[in-house]
Amino acid sequence: MIVKEISRAKINLALYVTGKRDDGYHDLCSLMSFIELCDDLEFDFQTSKVSVLCSHPDVPEDHTNLVCRAGALFFDKFLGIDKKQALTRGVAIKIRKRIPVGAGLGGGSSNAATVLKVLNRWYENPFSNMQLMKMGLSIGADVPFFIHGGPAVAQGVGERLKKCNPLLPYHVLLFFPGITASTADVYKNIDLSLTKYGKSNINNLLKICESGREVDIKDFLHNDLESSALRLYPDIGYVKKEMARFLPEGVLMTGSGSSFFAIFSDYGKADRAFRELSEKWEGSGKKIFLTCFAVN
């Protein structure tokens, strides 16, 4: 039997780095939302091993792929519950990539979370959502968010999640400059003395998520990692300046880069900007998407 599932991208609408931990990781506070941009995953359960095929040439198809790691981890944990099924079952996964790779959109983490959720559902929910999130954290810091659902505020390294009230709907113009940014390098290069600006907004961000009303995020957009990424990858900065000339509404990087986004309440304006920028960058290797917030 074949099971098909979508795997959504995310954007960081607000991202504050609040300190460095003893283990070398950074604590953060980030409001994340799903967007409609997604990959397609296909699961074939007529196999006794975990395997992956992907349409994108830069995505590995071995044990280094987060999808393979998620599948192997699920069956390893399942072994303690139902040894017979775990030893005799597997899954072959095909990924049709639409989410750009290395773009700060969480594509790999989303794929891994989707694998954990689909396998759990297929085997009649042997694990709770909390257990799946704990498994996911061992694969990547963003994986718990994709299991938890959004919008949500993530704290710690991303493992402490608080569901946010629904966001006011916005159209999202998303731009990938064709440059892959290293998450580890961006965090390593961050100047914590420069992240203090705006930290007073963290409490306000947490409060609006508990207000009981729809959240208008436009006044809270922020990313502490952007300056680090722009120092490491000057070409990303040039692209942002180009975008800003077309988008007076403001342009913000998502995650550790390299993608940028702008939000629009007016679809007509978003569509015009999308068409102009699509024409300008046609054939350049850059990618632009017109999408919107998604609940799950």
How much is the average pLDDT?
A: 90
Number of strands: 11
The largest pleated sheet is described as:
11 strands, mixed
The end-to-end span amounts to 25 Å
- The helix/strand class is alpha+beta
Q: Give the C-alpha Rg.
A: 19 Å
Write a brief caption for the model.
The chain is of the alpha+beta class and 296 residues long.
Topology:
Elements: E1 2-20, E2 26-44, E3 50-54, H1 66-79, H2 83-88, E4 91-96, H3 107-122, H4 129-137, H5 143-148, E5 152-156, E6 160-163, E7 171-176, H6 183-188, H7 201-208, E8 222-223, H8 226-232, H9 234-246, E9 252-253, E10 260-264, H10 267-280, E11 287-294
Parallel strand pairs: 1-8, 3-4
Antiparallel strand pairs: 1-2, 2-4, 2-5, 2-11, 5-6, 7-10, 7-11, 9-10
Helix pairs in contact: 1-3, 3-4, 8-9
